[in-house]
Write a structure and sequence with these properties.
The complex is a heterodimer of chains A (272) and B (309). With 272 residues, chain A is of the alpha/beta class. Chain A has 10 helices and 10 strands. Chain A has helices at 44-51, 77-86, 105-117, 121-134, 140-144, 153-166, 183-199, 211-217, 235-240, 245-271; strands at residues 4-13, 19-28, 34-37, 59-67, 70-71, 88-91, 171-175, 203-207, 220-225, 228-234. In chain A, the strands form 2 sheets. Chain A has a 6-stranded mixed beta sheet with strand order 6-7-8-3-9-10, with helices on both faces. The longest helix of chain A is centred in the last third of the chain and has 27 residues, at 245-271. In chain B, 77% of the residues lie in helices and 0% in strands. In chain B, 32% of the residues are buried. The chains are: A alpha/beta (272), B mainly alpha (309). At the A-B interface, helix 2, strand 6, helix 3 and helix 6 of A face helix 9, helix 10 and helix 14 of B.
Chain lengths: 272, 309
């Protein structure tokens, strides 16, 4: 059985009837990470929010999204809350604004663990410390006491990954997981994802416009443009043997950019 | 945090000096001579010698700055001089009227908080639905209707038609209900709108999305939204509380409530300068102190405010 099966999902504005996501289907298989790529505004995040029923009011989703045989779009509020808590963790983009600014990161983290894993505060603290250390945070107890504005984007991103990992979900959806990060933090975060994938067997969905990251992490890839599916298949196939104009354009742009960057770097090193 | 409070406390000292100076100077700018007024209200013909004697008695013959310093130093000790009308110490007059006003202010305050918080939470939970629209409609009317009219309507309905509550005065504990409700209504509209709009706005913040995405309960999320929406409401409360205590002339007059508002109006009509001066000064101090408290509470709630100091 597929881990997650999305069938003909469409999302539209209930007032204007404007379609934002148009009839997209895909399936997530165990241990095969999926990358969703496309330019900004192509509806990548919106589609995920639609599946998890996290859309802003005034948006409506049609179609079906089966998790363990049950349609998430039709289940009760309580049931979807349970899925978000234990089975499908989402890490939203922009870590700097992802935590309540009035409370410490530790309190929010422990609150989540107590609630989702039904454990005591003491256990939640131990797990928090352990998970933070595993995502490469050295002074974990310090970090727990900090308010969100006192931590960097990379730190907060890792806190979110630690929270997701602590609940041991079946699926982790990471929305633009590397955009807000510098190159070194980026590679740390990617390593953490790879470790979770191999050690815990977590299946990931990555939403990104960074093709390099997707190529590194995802086995399957889904290309989106203007709310529509452009191409869907194995990462190697899509990136190297694509017949689709838009996908080729995306890949070529990426290659051009890397080339000019590499050229610049070479010139720099020659000058030096 | 301690630094912040100390710094803010120090910053109000020059403010208070400025306010006291203004309160003093305003009275001195009026055209009538206080000495003459003092004589007139006691029904003594203001002959030239009588005025001169009175000026000396009141210390008005001394230079302006000296008078100001004398007034400020004795004011700090709680001595605002004697009323022109009945020659009682001003501080006693105020102390007599204050409990009634404080009672009215406290009851209104409780009504304001309970009603606006619950109404705005209901509005946020059911945003855009019937109940939200209904509450907002009522709030709109509440804001548009003048306080004295609502006061009279309430009085007509509850006291005259239903004969449930006393119309005026301070005869029993139920007397406070009508004036307090009248007073509270004007504020409730403001606070429901303020809180509801803040909360609805915060609902679409990223941290709320993330809280939902990690499976937090609706009630926990609502608590966070509420706490985040408080900042501007607390600043506004810092202005509303002293306004409530300063007494509302209209409500106190309609309901014959023997509070500070009525005292000040009487003093103004009678040219009772020492009372007016004391009233202006004390209320200004109250405003400054309440604003300071509001800022401190905000800083306690929001760690980002503490950082800037």
């Amino acid at each position: 059985m597929k881990l997650l099966e999305v069938k003909n999902i469409s999302i539209y504005d209930t007032q204007t009837k404007n379609g934002i996501i148009k009839d997209i289907s895909f399936a997530l298989e165990h241990h095969r990470n999926l990358g969703i790529v496309g330019e900004s505004g192509s509806g990548k995040s919106m589609m995920i929010k639609g599946i998890l029923r996290l859309m802003a009011p005034g948006m409506n989703a049609s179609g079906a999204a089966y998790f363990e045989g049950e349609d998430m779009l039709k289940m009760s509020a309580k049931a979807i809350q349970n899925i978000r808590a234990r089975h499908i963790s989402m890490i939203p983009q922009d870590p700097m604004s992802a935590f309540d600014p009035l409370d410490t990161v530790g309190k929010q983290m422990m609150e989540t663990l107590c609630e989702n894993l039904k454990i005591s505060k003491k256990e939640a603290k131990q797990i928090s410390l352990h998970e933070l250390e595993r995502v490469g945070i050295k002074e974990a107890s310090q970090v727990l006491r900090k308010y969100p504005h006192q931590l960097s984007g990379g730190m907060l991103q890792r806190c979110m990954i630690a929270i997701a990992a602590a609940s041991k979900p079946d699926i982790i959806i990471a929305d633009e997981p590397t955009t807000a990060l510098d190159a070194i933090t980026q590679s740390d975060v990617i390593a953490t994802f790879q470790r979770l994938h191999t050690q815990l067997g977590t299946t990931f969905i990555f939403i990104s416009h960074d093709l390099g990251v997707i190529q590194q992490l995802a086995q399957d890839v889904l290309v989106m443009k203007d709310g529509k599916l452009v191409e869907y298949g194995g990462t190697g196939d899509v990136f190297h043997h694509s017949k689709n104009e838009y996908t080729k354009y995306l890949v070529d742009t990426r290659i051009k950019l890397t080339r000019s960057f590499e050229k610049l770097m070479r010139e720099e090193s020659c000058d030096a | 945090m301690r630094h912040y409070i100390i710094k803010r406390l120090l910053s109000i000292v020059p403010l208070l000096i400025g306010i006291s100076f203004l309160a003093f100077i305003l009275i001195n700018l009026t055209e009538s001579d206080p000495a003459e007024v003092a004589l007139r209200v006691n029904e003594i013909t203001p002959t030239e010698t009588a005025v001169a004697e009175m000026r000396e008695e009141l210390g008005l013959d001394k230079p302006f700055i000296e008078r100001y310093i004398t007034w400020v130093t004795s004011s700090i000790k709680g001595d605002f001089g004697n009323s022109f009308i009945n020659n009682q110490p001003v501080i006693d007059e105020i102390a007599q009227a204050l409990p009634a006003t404080l009672l009215l202010a406290l009851v209104s305050f409780v009504i304001i908080i309970v009603v606006s918080v619950s109404a705005s939470i209901i509005c946020t939970m059911y945003e855009g639905r019937m109940i939200d629209r209904a509450i907002r409609g009522i709030v709109f009317f509440g804001e548009a209707m003048p306080g004295y009219w609502i006061g009279l309507l309430l009085m007509w309905f509850f006291s005259i038609k239903l004969n449930l509550l006393p119309t005026s005065g301070m005869s029993s504990w139920t007397s406070v209900i009508l004036p307090a409700v009248t007073l509270a209504l004007a504020y409730i509209s403001t606070y429901v709108r303020l809180l509801r709009n803040n909360m609805v706005q915060i609902k679409s913040e990223n941290f709320v999305l993330y809280a939902k995405a990690r499976g937090m309960k609706e009630s926990v999320i609502l608590k966070r939204i509420f706490k985040n929406s408080l900042q501007s409401a607390i600043t506004a409360l810092g202005m509303s509380i002293p306004k409530l205590i300063a007494g509302t002339v209209i409500v106190e007059n309609i309901f014959a409530w023997p509070g500070i508002g009525r005292l000040s109006v009487t003093a103004i009509f009678n040219y009772d300068y020492p009372v007016i001066q004391a009233y202006v000064f004390l209320m200004a101090v109250l405003f400054v102190v309440c604003n300071l408290l509001a800022d401190i509470v905000t800083a306690i709630l929001d760690p980002r405010m503490r950082k800037e100091v």
